[in-house]
Specification:
The chain contains 7 helices and 20 strands. 32% of the residues lie in helices and 32% in strands. By secondary structure, the chain is an alpha+beta fold. It has 3 domains: 82 residues, no CATH class; 133 residues, Jelly Rolls (Sandwich), CATH 2.60.120.1440; 71 residues, Phage tail protein beta-alpha-beta fold (3-Layer(bab) Sandwich). A hairpin with a 5-residue loop joins strand 4 and strand 5.
Length: 330
């Protein structure tokens, strides 16, 4: 397996912060199991992290002094010793824990660039909400429900990296010198300027849809194998890292951007979970109808009773109400 350093670096730091998702934890665990060197690297990082967390006083690295020392020592082939400024315990508690990770990941040089660099932004959506954000380069991200997006507060040199769990549609500003890259637990999708959708929920295969332009998609573990998608094409990537390309038959895959839910031959059990989250109600489907298939759509502001009646008619089942609970059955 092969991993990008930036991706693993991000996973390690957030693992130490106990903020990894289940899918990200699986990716990090696979990396740790590859060899002893990876495990030793992680353990050294964890021990230093723990030490900084239990210290009586926080030590704030003097980044400029460290960089100057590093530059001088580099010319003479000797190792630079960090310079530190002692601060109040509460002032730098969160900062020093991140700094400890950065210093171990790359020494004084890496610390200089990364600690001087941009902060990380995280946007999360709940089960019944979507969000639209403008990224630092002016690109737009339309974030679907139950999703998490992470990115640098300011894109600088190199790639414009986005880490996604869930689903988002991107309208990307063209910049040939700075590729726009979306990382998921299973894939790496790179573009220069286009509109495309990435669906990467934990329990489902990753899907990438291209509305305009061109993107390249590769599995995280087999990045030498990739597919280039053009307008109207999509690719599905499973846990086996196999890439299956196909044509897009319609634009229903981005209907969620307009708060429209489209159900195309989905089982009742899946449909009612989404309707429950949207309307904050309890819906039960009898066991003998849970796999009945549904073809319908739910539009913004549509009354709940109308939605449930449409589902019942589509699946040829009965709708009843017991107190505050709706039931679908025969």
């Amino acid at each position: 397996m092969s991993y990008t350093f930036d991706h693993i670096e991000s996973l390690i730091v957030r693992s130490l912060e106990s903020s990894l998702s289940e899918a990200e934890q699986t990716t990090l665990q696979s990396w740790l199991e590859e060899n002893d060197a990876n495990r030793r690297y992680y353990e050294e990082l964890r021990k230093t992290w723990d030490l900084t967390g239990s210290a009586d006083e926080d030590i704030m690295p003097d980044i400029d002094a460290n960089w100057a020392s590093f530059s001088r020592k580099l010319q003479h082939g000797t190792q630079a010793q960090p310079t530190a400024i002692v601060r109040n315990v509460n002032s730098y508690r969160g900062f020093i824990r991140a700094a400890a990770a950065v210093l171990l990941l790359g020494g004084a040089a890496t610390a200089y660039f990364l600690l001087k660099g941009p902060a990380q932004m995280t946007v999360q959506t709940a089960a019944n909400e979507t969000n639209i954000i403008v990224l630092p380069d002016g690109s737009k991200a339309f974030i679907n429900n139950n999703s998490t997006l992470r990115y640098a507060k300011n894109f600088k040199d190199g790639e414009r990296a986005i880490h996604l769990e869930g689903e988002a549609f991107f309208d990307v500003v063209k910049d040939d010198a700075h590729p726009f890259v979306v990382y998921t637990s299973q894939t790496r999708t790179q573009v220069l300027g286009t509109t495309f959708d990435v669906k990467a929920y934990t329990v489902q295969p990753v899907e990438v849809f291209v509305l305009s332009g061109k993107v390249s998609v590769a599995g995280q573990e087999q990045q030498t194998k990739q597919v280039v998608l053009t307008e109207g094409r999509k690719v599905t990537v499973g846990k086996d890292q196999q890439l299956a390309e196909d044509a897009i038959s319609n634009h229903d895959f981005i209907a969620w951007k307009d708060n429209i839910m489209v159900f195309d031959d989905e089982p009742i059990s899946h449909v009612i979970r989404k309707v429950e989250a949207l309307y904050d109600v309890k819906i039960v489907a009898d066991e003998n109808v849970q796999e009945y298939r549904i073809k319908t759509r739910v539009t913004p502001g549509q009354p709940l009773e109308e939605v449930l009646n449409t589902i019942a008619v589509s699946a040829n089942v009965n709708l009843t109400k017991e107190g505050s609970v709706y039931r679908l059955g025969k």
